[in-house]
Automatic annotation (TrEMBL):
Protein name as it appears in the record: Small CPxCG-related zinc finger protein
Taxonomic source organism: Halococcus thailandensis JCM 13552
Amino acid sequence: MSESTERPSLCLNCGFEAMPGDDQWETVESPPLGVLTQCPDCGSTDVTNRW
């Protein structure tokens, strides 16, 4: 998929948006799940890509 058609990832907790893989997103490691995307504003890992 080309970069021009990508949509921002969305934090379902606070509404923060940034492009997937953007440096604004943080990560957290959860041993049973692996590395999760984390919202820099609220710390939530409830993040989705809106396709």
